């Protein structure tokens, strides 16, 4: 792995978890990042609470701005436990924390992490096989990074800020093209209500692109997915169509 793509002043770290593989965190608190970075790499034990994982760090840091509300994908520091907390759903902190960053990519993968799992915190570096795509997307304003999933596959991750939330997406490169998938929305139960809602959602996004679909991930959660051919311009366009379709999905859910 070689950091050929310039990261500038961006502050990243990677978590390595058995159930997820790598997960990229982007920090926006320079003081905390620089102090935490002094201890990297280090290992810790994961605790799971509602839709949050947290783990003790070697860092004793005094927060400057406490908050009690966070959005999905937020990374926070919890002073009583000297812990980093990563939120992957709608649940909120047990007590006040300082928001220090966010997950780049899909935070919902953390649903599979078990209490007592080991986490390793290490430096971030791009993976060589994804460098060209990362540079291409970054040149077009998308902050792309790479990770290894739990099976060792290289994935290109990004988080795109929308008006009311941040959308995580992931791209997997295959020999025949690219597969694009968003973060999940809700678990599909095959009930009549869910079937009716999915039918409505399919109709809503049908005009955006023939390659963008209402889909399920491997755990039966609703996502938006798409495919692109090997042309990188097509990859960029399909990512933008996927984002547009996800926004349409969320608008439909608000009106449902």
In whole angstroms, the N-to-C terminal distance is 46 Å
State the CATH architecture of the largest domain: 2-Layer Sandwich
What is the CATH class name of the largest domain?
Alpha Beta
Total separate domains? 2
**Low confidence ranges:** none
Strand proportion, as a percent range, falls in 35-45%
Radius of gyration: 18 Å
Largest sheet: 8 strands, antiparallel, barrel
Which structural class best describes the helix and strand composition?
Answer: alpha+beta
Measured as a percent range, the helix fraction is: 10-25%
The name of the CATH topology of the largest domain is Yope Regulator, Chain: A
Read across the widest sheet, the strand sequence of neighbours is 1-2-7-5-6-4-3-8
Mean pLDDT: 94
Number of helices: 4
Q: Can you write the helix and strand succession as a string?
A: EEHEEEEEEHEEEEHEEH
Shape: globular
Total strands: the figure is: 14
Oligomeric organization of the protein chains: single chain
Describe the protein's topology.
Elements: E1 11-17, E2 21-27, H1 30-37, E3 42-49, E4 52-56, E5 74-78, E6 83-87, E7 98-104, E8 118-123, H2 131-139, E9 144-148, E10 154-161, E11 166-174, E12 177-182, H3 192-205, E13 212-216, E14 222-228, H4 232-255
Antiparallel strand pairs: 1-2, 1-8, 2-7, 3-4, 3-8, 4-6, 5-6, 5-7, 9-10, 10-11, 11-12, 12-14, 13-14
């Amino acid at each position: 792995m070689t950091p050929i793509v310039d990261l500038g002043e961006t502050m990243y770290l990677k978590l390595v978890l058995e159930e997820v593989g790598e997960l990229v965190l982007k920090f926006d608190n320079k003081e905390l990042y620089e102090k935490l970075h002094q201890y990297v790499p280090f290992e810790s034990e994961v605790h799971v609470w509602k839709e949050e994982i947290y783990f003790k760090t070697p860092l004793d840091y005094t927060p400057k701005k406490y908050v009690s509300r966070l959005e999905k994908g937020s990374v926070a520091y919890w002073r009583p436990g000297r812990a980093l907390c990563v939120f992957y759903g709608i649940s909120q902190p047990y007590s006040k924390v300082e928001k220090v960053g966010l997950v780049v990519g899909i935070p919902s993968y953390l649903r599979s992490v078990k209490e007592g799992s080991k986490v390793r915190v290490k430096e971030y570096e791009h993976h060589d096989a994804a460098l060209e795509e990362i540079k291409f997307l970054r040149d077009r304003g998308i902050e792309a990074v790479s990770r290894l999933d739990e099976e060792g596959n290289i994935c290109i991750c990004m988080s795109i800020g929308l008006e009311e939330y941040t959308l995580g997406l992931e791209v997997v490169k295959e020999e025949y093209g690219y597969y694009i998938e968003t973060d999940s929305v809700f678990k599909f139960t095959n009930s009549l209500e869910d079937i009716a809602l999915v039918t409505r959602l399919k109709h809503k996004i049908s005009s955006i692109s023939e390659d963008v679909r209402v889909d399920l991930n491997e755990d039966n959660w609703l996502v938006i997915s798409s495919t692109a051919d090997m042309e990188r311009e097509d990859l960029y366009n399909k990512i933008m169509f996927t984002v547009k379709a996800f926004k349409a999905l969320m608008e439909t859910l608000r009106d449902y």
